[in-house]
Structures are given as structure tokens and as C-alpha cells.
Write a structure and sequence with these properties.
heterodimer, A: mainly alpha, 78% helix, flat, B: mainly alpha, 9 helices
Chain lengths: 69, 202
């Protein structure tokens, strides 16, 4: 059970880290670009645009259509 | 006349860069992982897209997809609400669900193939953001992959090392969870699509 909680904690920590980075970016844009601006920059290339949208689309496919578990 | 060696090596490295664009590599590696975990359909999705991106990057094949403008946000939101209701009402893992999600995927590829967005100036703050956000993403992926591998031996091990799918699946099976997941998924899709088209709010 402890290992399970650590694993879940790891996933949640990643979410929190993204939130913290976003707050830092809003407070000090000279030091860190926000997630939104970074995504704008990255998605200017076709491979990133199609790749990122593929990951997003696959999540929908995985949970709604495919046998998830 | 013999080609200058440095010219040839530059052309070589450019070709390699096009083949090994970071996101193409990520998509290709994900395809391999899906095949490894025994999900050939998922692997095929990623492999086909990886091959299309490689062929397009090298210039072997020019996929001429007519540029389709993304409709106004109000129109997109209206379609998303209709599709969202259908996705919630249709039986999970059913044919209707498959057709709707597949249609969304096909539309998204067509709309996202061309873009009016341009990369912003490469600043130190942007480099910091790419490094830090990527690091968080990679750590998340490593936890997911290690959980999957450590959970393989037995159902008990799977319980101790849950993947994101195992954690979320029971919630998506409930009506409330399905509404929340579908809503967030569609919202994220609109957000990515608008960012990719350079139409997001600045």
C-alpha cells in the first residue's frame, strides 16, 4: 500500500510541479516562459504539432474506445 | 567534380535532424512501447504517424492536405458540446464511441497539418521553460513506465504499482467521471488546436 501511495504521490507531484512552474512563469516571465507561450513556440513545427495532438487524441481513444485495463 | 566533404556532411546532418526531430522520435519510441506492452493497435497509430512525419520531414512524400481554417471558438465549442454529449451517452468502448473519436482525430490532423504560427524568439526564459517542463514530463513518463513494468508479475504487484490508466479507469467508468474526463479531454483538444494554429489568446 505504501508503494502504491508513493506512486500516486509521484504522479500528483508532477501535476503540482507544472502548477508551480506556471506560477513562477507568471511572476517572473524574464526567468521562465509560461507553459502557454512554450507550447506556442514548440507547436510551430509540424512534427511537434501532430505529435502533441496525437498524444492528446490517443488519451481519448485509450479511455473511451480501447479496453483501458 | 567531387563534392566538398563538409558540404556532404552538412547535408547528411540536416537529413538526420529531419528524421530525428524530437517529437518524431518521441512518437516512434511510444509506438515501440505500445507494441512492447501488447497494444498493437495503439502502436500502429503511433508508428504510422511517426513514418508520415519522417517521410514528410525528409521530403520523400509531400502530403498535400488542403489548409482548413479552424472555425471561430464559439462554433468549435458548440461542436464540442454536441460531440461531448454523444461521447457520454454512447456505450463506453462501443462502435459509436470509436467512430466519433476517430472522426475527431482525422479532423484534427487535417486542421493541424498546416499552421499560421511561427516559433518565438529563442530566449533564455524559453530555454529554461523547455528544460523544466520537459523534465517534469519525462519524470511523469518514467513513473508511468516503471509502474507498468513493476506491475507486470502479478495483480498484487499491479495494485502496488498502478499506471495512470489503472488509477483513472474506475472513475471514467462512472457517469460523473465520464463527464469530467470527456469535458477535460475536449477542452484540452480545443486548446492545443488553437495554440497549434497560432489562434490562442495572447
Amino acid at each position: 500500500m505504501t508503494i502504491r501511495l508513493i506512486t500516486i504521490g509521484g504522479f500528483l507531484a508532477c501535476l503540482v510541479a507544472i502548477g508551480v512552474l506556471e506560477v513562477i512563469a507568471k511572476r517572473d516571465p524574464q526567468r521562465l516562459t509560461s507553459l502557454t507561450s512554450m507550447v506556442d513556440h514548440v507547436m510551430a513545427t509540424r512534427s511537434a504539432r501532430i505529435g502533441i495532438l496525437l498524444f492528446w487524441w490517443w488519451l481519448g481513444w485509450h479511455f473511451l474506445v480501447g479496453q483501458t485495463v | 567534380m567531387a563534392k566538398h566533404p563538409s558540404l556532404s556532411s552538412t547535408r547528411h546532418s540536416t537529413l538526420l535532424q529531419r528524421i530525428a526531430e524530437p517529437w518524431t522520435v518521441v512518437v516512434f519510441v511510444t509506438a515501440l512501447f505500445h507494441f512492447l506492452r501488447g497494444a498493437p493497435v495503439d502502436g500502429a497509430f503511433f508508428l504510422v504517424i511517426a513514418l508520415v512525419l519522417i517521410a514528410d520531414g525528409i521530403g520523400w512524400v509531400h502530403f498535400r492536405i488542403p489548409s482548413v481554417a479552424l472555425p471561430q471558438l464559439f462554433t468549435v465549442a458548440g461542436f464540442a458540446v454536441v460531440l461531448g454529449v454523444l461521447l457520454i451517452l454512447a456505450p463506453r468502448h462501443g462502435l459509436a464511441e470509436g467512430l466519433i473519436v476517430s472522426s475527431i482525430g482525422a479532423y484534427v490532423v487535417v486542421v493541424a497539418w498546416e499552421s499560421s504560427g511561427a516559433p518565438s524568439a529563442n530566449s533564455q526564459s524559453l530555454r529554461n521553460a523547455i528544460i523544466l517542463f520537459t523534465a517534469v514530463g519525462v519524470i511523469g513518463c518514467l513513473i508511468e513506465v516503471s509502474s507498468y513494468l513493476l506491475g507486470l508479475p502479478s495483480p498484487e504487484a499491479m495494485f502496488e504499482h498502478p499506471s495512470i490508466s489503472l488509477l483513472l479507469d474506475p472513475y471514467v467508468d462512472t457517469l460523473t467521471g465520464r463527464i469530467i474526463f470527456t469535458g477535460l479531454w475536449l477542452l484540452a483538444g480545443i486548446w492545443f488546436l488553437r495554440r497549434g494554429r497560432g489562434q490562442g489568446p495572447r
